[in-house]
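Hey all, quick one. A colleague (J.T.) asked me to put the N-(iminomethyl)-L-glutamic acid job into the tracker so the inputs and the structure tokens live in one place instead of scattered across chat threads. No bug as far as I know, just bookkeeping. Sequence used:
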Amino acid sequence: MLEDAFVLCAAGAIEAVGRMRDLHSLDGDVFEVDCRGLSAVPGLVDCHTHAAFGGDRVDEFSLRAGGASYEQLHAAGGGILSTVRATRAAGEAGLRAAVELHRSWMLREGTTTFEAKSGYGLDRETELASLRAIREAGGFPTWLGAHAVPPEFDDADAYLDFALAEVLPDAAKLAEAADVFLEHGAFDAAQARRYLEACRDAGLALRIHGDQFTSSGAIPLAVELAVRSVDHLEATGEEGIRTLASSDVVGVLLPASALFLDRPMPPARRLVDAGSAVALATDFNPGSAFCESLPLVCSLAATQLHLSPAEALAACTVNAAHVLGRGGRIGRLAPGYRADVTLLEAPDWRYLAYHLGSRVVARAVVGGELR
Ligand code: NIG
Ligand code: FE
């Protein structure tokens, strides 16, 4: 930690970081941002969101508040499939507007890089439109072609036949990674393997939604296929912790989703102590985590996951950047990194986790531009 520090940026990248007393006069046109009274941290990286959706699930949220469970609503054709209907109805312009709006919410919370998944179209047109909307908003697009089985297919295998033959060739041109929801009622381990292997052959990096409600083989598959991350892990037990910790697969923790669904928190402390690399993300989506705030996620990490503020900050900056395959370019305040800086309204950077649910982000600098 540096007191009375500067971050010198040029052409969108960080050129130097140091103490003000060591900053000598600069040549040329220098635009100075006075950050006295603020704390600067690396621009926050949200490596797991579902920002491409139409409509909302506020009715379902109210039903859940009255006692209905997320799984019951899903099984009754609500849940993800109700967002699929709204997303298909939104059209490409509606989806573009939605992703743009969600991106602005994230930026307000200090997120300077976001990943977003498709997965609420589940037809060719809407999946590709989702990926285009994410790209246009400057996000990292992930093809979540295996999120749920849409109503026009009888079973998961028939849907995968379609998705891999008809959507993957074009999705692979728009997306950087592929993701699958490996869970009872969604896709099983054999189906997930089939999907991921086809996506890998098409050049995509791999991710898995795993161990959210049940431990159904996500971690062994993740390690075997050397995927970038396995995300959720609320249902992960001792064996899963050991297996994950002995691999290079990052565990992505989504405590806002566990909170929003009133589910157990993932075993974050035990994962870190066992040697696992972990990242933190919001899981922003209309059903299981209507939350775009990484500062709130950092608070949950400290109070519920027993990570230190420093571990939480690393988890939603540099570690999250690694999940996106950009560990050498974003996520640190260091020379050569993109000039992404999140400025906190705080005398100590640990307010990022400490100031629970309050407005802690003052401004963000993205690629050297003050936003
Ligand atoms: O990560 N688990 C699957 N997908 C999302 C939830 C999607 C939804 O409820 O709309 C998740 O929690
Ligand atoms: Fe998710």
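Adding what we noticed when we looked at it: DSSP finds 14 helices and 14 strands in the chain. The radius of gyration is 20 Å.
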